[in-house]
Amino acid sequence: MTATGIGASVRRKEDHRFITGQGRYTDDINRPGQAHAYFLRSPHAHAMIRSIDAKAAAAMPGVLGIFTGDDLAADKVGGLICGWMIHNKDGSPMRAGAHPALAQGKVRYVGDHVCVIVAETLAQARDASEAILVDYEVLPAVVDTASAAGAKTVVHAEAPDNTVFNWHLGNKDETEAAFRAAKHVTRLDIVNNRLVPNPMEPRAAVGDYDDGEGIFTLYTTSQNPHVARLVLSAFIGIAPENKLRVVAPDVGGGFGSKIFIYAEETVCVWVAKKVGRPVKWNSDRTEAFLSDAHGRDHVTHAELATDADGKITALRVKTTANLGAYLSTFSSSVPTYLYAPLLSGSYDIPAIYAEVDAVYTNTAPVDAYRGAGRPEATFVVERLVEVAARELGKDPAKFRMQNYIKTFPHQTPVIMMYDAGNYGAALKKALEIIDYKGIGKRKRESARNGKLRGIGFSSYIEACGIAPSAAVGSLGAGVGLWESAEVRVNPVGTVEVLTGSHSHGQGHETTFAQLVSGKLGIPIENVSIIHGDTDKVQMGMGTYGSRSGAVGMSAIFKAVDKVIAKGKKVAAYVLEADEADIDFADGHFSVKGTDRKLDFGSCALQAYIAHKFNGQDLEPGLKEGAFYDPTNFTFPAGVHICEVEIDPQTGVTKIERWAAVDDFGNVINPMIVEGQVHGGIAQGVGQALLEGAKYNSDGQLVTASFMDYCMPRADDLPSFEVGMTVTACPSNPLGIKGCGEAGAIAAPPAVINAITDALGHEDIAMPATPQAVWRAAQKSIARMAAE
Amino acid sequence: MYAFTYHRPGSARQAAGLLAKKEDAKILAGGHTLLPTMKQRLASPAALVDLGGCGDLKGIVRKGRTLHVGAMSTHAEVAASSIVQEAIPGLAYLASHIGDPHVRHRGTIGGSVANNDPAADYPAACLALGATIVTNKRKIEADDFFTGLYETALEEGEIITKVVFPVVSKAGYAKFRNPASRYALVGVFVAKRGSEIRVAVTGAGEGGVFRWPEAEAALKARFAPKSLDGLKASAEGINADMHADADYRAHLIGVMAKQAVAQATGK
Amino acid sequence: MASVSMTVNGKPVTGTIDPRTLLVQFLRENLRLTGTHVGCDTSQCGACVVHIDGKAAKACTVLAVSLEGASITTIEGLADEGGLHPMQEAFREHHGLQCGFCTPGMIMSAVDIVNRRGHQLDEKTIREDLDGNICRCTGYHNIVKAVAAGAEAMAGQAMDKKEPPRQAAE
Q1: A43: in domain
Q2: Structural domains of chain C sorted by starting position, each given as residue range(s) with its CATH number in brackets
Q3: Residue A2: Cβ within 10 Å count
């Protein structure tokens, strides 16, 4: 391993601009003549719009234009789409209502887009918004996930019982038979709380239209600018792809919420042409709470069957998933194919059956948020397994070990073919880190101080590196999930790598450069990573689902191999040898068995001057592209153990220790991977202890700012003890699995299992706030007193 | 924000003149409540009179058995003041736990007291310590000053110039923070001045800061945490929201009171 | 409109501004110093933290017009020309940032912690004093390490020359 090669904790190349305030985020971009957009949003969760009177507002100072859904329709601008078709149990397609970027006759959640005001300044646009008279006929709202199906209030006429789909996966008959034969059945009712992603950079967009060229440009906070262009072009109809450029510059975190093609970005680029000015929109935090796609929001009944030996024999779940008022870009895939296929966890479970009903409600759309479906599945499995162990009087670590999948490949009853793993090794290592043997003593010490201590496990698995195109296509995806790369070698041997992946915190500029510099044997400084601009980078699919390493880097790997192959041809001419005799190692092409060699930079120069070969036999230049489509999902797995201490007086849960042992396959940059783990755990702890989006019965979001929605802060969290185990992933050339979502997937059940261990009962829901824990602790104390 | 005119007088007297002259004028002290409210367009003063230039509203001095804190003293200044730390360490402690470090650099005691946010910290200290709120017109006892949610005895155009605290023998503060906003979900300030015990509770009351007579009586027998064993505040008149219902808040009042007494007595 | 003059990163600046202009808007829009970010509208996230007369403050909650004569330091002016401040270097070295959006505010807050509490900072102190800064990426683990290391490194350097000594009263 070299200081900058694969496996080295290279300090990030991108950091200099961020630590010196020179990052370039969308809101830092200002176009000449730029105007500002403000969206008038619905104050009602559900209402018919009888009329919009914007006459007085249009005459206010600075106002350039006010546009409504009627204007969108007149311009034939299409609605926002959901790109993943789910079929009902009976084979019929899901029922999707229209999703106009600006409301057309009806608003369906608080924050829904009524119209847009474009003015010289944001203050003027906002002033004008207050002069617009909207005549609403307020309708009752349907808010609650569990009772939305069949409610009197109907969100979309297309789905008259508010059910988008009722879907299932697995083998119902085998599962039911296994439950009938079970020695013991563990049952849980689980609410997976609704979350707001809250990347620190709010969404933003600058739309620009070049009248001379007829070209639109959209600068936007996107995790996948090419997908945005595809949707804006092919489905929404803003402009053909060759007349639409989408740029996603530095993006301040995404966590899924910036995958989607939203109303505001769509309107910004459309309206730029209408007003003949660049138009900027920058979300404030309140708007972000109201209109960014939320995450999770499941209500589940789950059951686990075990036999007389404590072997898990079957699992079944019935889940209702709230998709909000409209189907966001990938929303339908999250509670289905990103959820149920993970219900086998790390366990050998012969029979699994999952039913998922997805419902419309008068709340913000729900879509992928860090982990997307997999945290929900992991929470179900790991809570069930923990509670089953407790009910059976078994040690939760031993119970897991007993039921782990131990041979690979392993076909689960729910689609997935796990390719490699060693779950027992991770568990052993995590038990050592946390000092599991000493937990009894630590519990007694806490008890002496009037505190309750508990320990909780989460042995997660996830499927990421999303994903083989053929596989997702067969499951309903509207796109393929390969990735592209282009490696351009300059005549002096420096390299530009153009990737379809997009970095918004993941450190691609460093890890991708590590890969290329390592493979080509050139200094890391000589490698630049270019991403996020559809004018520069060929079609790509973007960053989500922990896919940039396993898929994006594999594409780069392939392209670099092609560069080396071409370089060998060039070197053969220059070194006057047979191509078959050319080796490439340590940045040099050499002739086998001789000391004749050519360094990579010289080879590049020769490729471009083409003096030593004629351009008919060998094309000049050194530039190669590749598209990589994986053969399987990747399956990172690991064990997280959380130890908490509860103050029963206040209900405060303090996380005392956290051991995380993850198997991400081969690791390019351990520093960055560990950082991803830390961040994921923090979001998972947030879900378990702090965060929860709440609507009241009128559909008002009562957690619409950081004043009420509790974001994890530094003093809510401990330092984490992170370890790794490695089983290389056989499905991609780098053997890597993906690490971005693992922490968020693993953490919630670890926390809740620790809290319930401390409490001695299972009666606590997420988020386990101090109030909830205090109340639950009173129950524990009363029980203990009674015993 | 809506548009306003901005004025920066050099003294409290000038400020009072401006307030009298300007229609719908508001005082800007630290701005850490007013400006966020204006940003959300929930307040629309026509004029702002910024007290930041009023040198006569600054400074912390001890005069015998009283501590005089200028209205424009920031929370950070009160927290770091050796005079406060020596005279009433519990007050310095309270100031050091208001908001976050950045807020403490800008927020002022005068602004906090005048705003009387039901979840603010200073009102508890004022009420428990029996402070006197001094304005450009008069002196108002803390008992008469805090009149309800965001309501005080201040009249239109009246400016707090300083807060005068009696130096008590023992004082302590404990707060349970709202996990999201980090304002006081419940804050309890206890003070012992001679034989007089005062316990003031912020964050919890439907009508803002209030005294807890039962705890005062219990502590009068002996000023020790143990004296509060088994004592629970009534949930009557206690705030309820998604973070804490009245029962939980009432319970926390007892827990925080004990912690405050422990701090005051160095236990 | 109102006129205001202040020193920003050691340079005198003057602006004619609407009184409702917040310091963060003045920095970002008038001076094009876009390193100071806005991450919320309730004065909580700390992405906008700058130093006003040597003390950390939220630039989203201060009127620019109220800063006549003040000295402001932003992330762009923290280091000496061409170099890195030890705290910036510590954030890089310890991977104390991912997306980078909260980072300028974090670094400015971290320097302020050192100014107030000295160079030997334990984990608890750092975590408590980062109360006013929210990061969604890092889980704070590496930020805490970076602040501790940066604080020690600052001991070996002269105090930030561009910032005047702390004033006793404001």
Answers
A1: yes
A2: 2-77 (3.10.20.30), 86-155 (1.10.150.120)
A3: 14
Q: Where are the domains of chain B?
A: 5-53, 55-166, 170-264
Contacts of A692 (CB under 8 A, 6+ apart): A193, A194, A195, A703, A709, A710, A766, A767
CATH code matching the domain that covers B55-166, chosen among 3.30.465.10, 3.40.630.30, 3.40.30.10, 3.40.50.740: 3.30.465.10
How far off is chain C from B46, nearest CA to CA, in Å? 11
- B183-239 pLDDT, tens digit per residue, is 999 999 999 999 999 999 999 999 999 999 999 999 999 999 999 999 999 999 999
**How many domains, chain A?**
4
Summarised one tens digit per residue, pLDDT across range A336-388 is: 999 999 999 999 999 999 999 999 999 999 999 999 999 999 999 999 999 99
Does residue B54 carry a pLDDT above 90?
yes
In the predicted model, is pLDDT for residue A783 greater than 90? no
- Answer whether residue A133 shows pLDDT above 90: yes
Cβ-Cβ contacts under 8 Å, C47 against chain A: 200
Q: Thinking of the domain B170-264, which architecture would CATH place it in?
A: 2-Layer Sandwich (3.30)
Measured in angstroms, the CA of B178 and the nearest CA of chain A are apart by 9
Dump pLDDT digits (tens) for A410-458: 999 999 999 999 999 999 999 999 999 999 999 999 999 999 999 999 9
Residue A466: pLDDT band (50, 70, 90) is: confident
ipTM of the complex: 0.97
Establish if B248 touches chain A: CB-CB under 8 angstroms: yes
For residues A519 and A619, membership in a common domain is answered with: yes
CATH of the domain at A435: 3.30.365.10
CB contact under 8 A, A651 and B248: yes
Same domain, A537 and A640: no
Q: Are residues A247 and A318 in the same domain?
A: no
B99 touches chain C (CB under 8 A): yes
Q: Could you tell me if B1 lies within 8 Å of chain A, comparing CB atoms?
A: yes
Tell which residue, C81, C87, C95, C19, has the closest CA to residue C51.
Answer: C87
Please, which residues bridge with residue B12 across strands? none
State mean pLDDT over A184-193.
98
> B5-53 maps to which CATH number?
3.30.43.10
What sign does the dihedral B14-B19-B25-B30 (CA atoms) show? positive
Q: Report the mean per-residue pLDDT for chain A.
A: 97
**Cα A697 to Cα A58, A147, B18, C130, distances in angstroms:** 35, 12, 46, 36
B50 interfacial to chain C (CB closer than 8 Å): yes
Q: How far apart are CA B192 and CA B129, in angstroms?
A: 8
Q: Does B83 touch chain C (CB under 8 A)?
A: no
The predicted pLDDT at position C158 comes to 53
Judging contacts by C-beta atoms under 8 Å, the chain C residues touching residue A200 are 37, 39, 45, 47, 99, 101-102, 134-137
| Count of pairs with CB atoms under 8 A, one residue in A, one in C | 178
C window 12-31, beta carbon within 8 A of B: 18-20, 22
Say what the pLDDT of residue A1 is.
63
The 3-state DSSP composition of chain A as helix, strand, coil percent (nearest 5) reads 30, 25, 45
Task: Please report which confidence band the pLDDT of residue A787 belongs to, taking 50, 70 and 90 as the band edges.
Answer: confident
Residue C89: closest CA among chain A residues belongs to which residue?
Answer: A19
Q: How far apart are CA A678 and CA A719, in angstroms?
A: 9
Q: How many beta-carbon pairs under 8 angstroms link A with B?
A: 40
The model's pLDDT over A511-522, given as tens digits with 9 standing for 90+, comes to 999 999 999 999
A609 burial type by CB count under 10 A (0-12 exposed, 13-18 middle, 19+ buried): exposed
pLDDT at residue C168 tops 60: no
Q: Does B103 contact chain A (CB < 8 Å)?
A: no
Pairing of strands A312-322, A351-359: parallel
Looking at A589, A605, A628, the residue that finishes a domain is: A628
Helix/strand number for chain B, H first, E second: 11, 14
A277 inside domain: yes
C131 Cα to chain B: minimum distance (Å): 6
Q: Does A771 touch chain B (CB under 8 A)?
A: yes
* Shortest distance, CA C48 to any CA of chain A (angstroms): 11
